[in-house]
Design goal:
The protein has 106 residues and is mainly α. The chain contains three helices and no strands. The model has no long low-confidence stretch (mean pLDDT 86).
Length: 106
């Protein structure tokens, strides 16, 4: 994709990669501060575990929303294609038959 692309799929990949990079940097910083600040392994594990749980939840929610959004786009495209096919088929019918079909659908 060229620079400055507005494709939704490109934006998803770009922001997803950015989110993962920030999450790893945050976890590395928390780990370094925890190792520097605490002497006991249990304390370091508790601090890193708490932050990892929150960061993992946020990253998981982001990607869950992205997958749902992508599925909605695919469904909308399928619906539009089916509607176009139905309109094309209705255009081929004689007007009286088309009116009967439309009345039956309402």
């Amino acid at each position: 994709m060229p620079e400055g692309s507005t494709s939704p799929e490109f934006a998803r990949v770009k922001y997803g990669a950015l989110l993962i990079g920030v999450a790893f940097a945050l976890l590395a910083a928390v780990f370094c501060v925890a190792v520097w600040r605490f002497n006991a392994a249990a304390d370091v594990t508790a601090v890193v575990g708490a932050v990892t749980g929150v960061v993992g939840t946020v990253v998981g929610a982001f990607f869950g929303v992205q997958v749902g959004s992508s599925g909605k786009e695919v469904a909308e495209a399928g619906r539009a294609e089916a509607e176009k096919a139905a309109r094309t088929a209705m255009a081929k019918l004689p007007p009286a038959d088309a009116a009967d079909v439309l009345r039956a659908l309402q």
